[in-house]
Amino acid sequence: MALLPIIKYPDPVLVTPTKEVLDITDEIIQLMDDMYETMIDGDGIGIAAPQVNKSLRIALVEIDEETGLFEMINPKIIKSSGKAIDVEGCLSFPEIYGTVERAETIVLQYFDRDGDAYEVEAEDYLARVFQHELEHLDGKLFTDKIIQKIKPEDLEDYMEENIT
Ligand SMILES: [Zn+2]
């Protein structure tokens, strides 16, 4: 595995819609392994291929050990319901945090590295991270949806205030 440079805004790859993966090659497997290492190294809970300069429909999400790792090839949201507002950050915007409105519950379809198809229902923060990463695959960025910006030094206070 190898650490990949994280692409930061305003690199054009971040606002370019990605291409479907047509064939799960050794290079794709390697890319997913490298994306995982890069995400963990950056203390991220999700990463999308454009963030490592690959314009492909691949995203990884791991919000905690209990929920586990989702390695998603050609993911798509097929159902969404409810609305929730919470704080987000992004590896491509190291200094920016803000509140964003997302669907509260989603149903997601994707393929894993073996080409097996999955359908997953997610809610709350997991649903939020899926939505954030999938928007990267469409070249969309969370900064366009921020309701209220939060300074990094205020993040902890804000999180505590909003836990209740
Ligand atoms: Zn992001």
Question: Could you characterize the architecture of this molecule?
Answer:
This protein has 3 helices and 8 strands, in the order H-E-E-E-E-E-E-E-H-E-H. It is an alpha+beta fold and 164 residues long. The longest helix has 16 residues, at 26-41. It is globular. Zinc ion binds next to helix 2.
Entry summary:
Its EC number is 3.5.1.88. With 164 residues, the protein is α+β, with helices and mostly antiparallel strands.
- Work out the number of β strands: 8
Uncertain parts: none
Q: What's the helix-strand series?
A: HEEEEEEEHEH
What top-tier CATH class fits best?
A: Alpha Beta
CATH superfamily: Peptide deformylase
The total domain count is 1
The mean pLDDT is 95
Shape: globular
Number of helices: 3
Strand content: 25-35%
Strands of the largest sheet, in order across it? 1-2-3-6-7
Q: What small molecules does this complex bind?
A: zinc ion
Report the span from N to C terminus: 40 Å
Helix content: 10-25%
**Could you give a short account of the major beta sheet?**
5 strands, antiparallel
Protein name: Peptide deformylase
Active site: 133
Function: Removes the formyl group from the N-terminal Met of newly synthesized proteins. Requires at least a dipeptide for an efficient rate of reaction. N-terminal L-methionine is a prerequisite for activity but the enzyme has broad specificity at other positions.
Organism: Carnobacterium iners
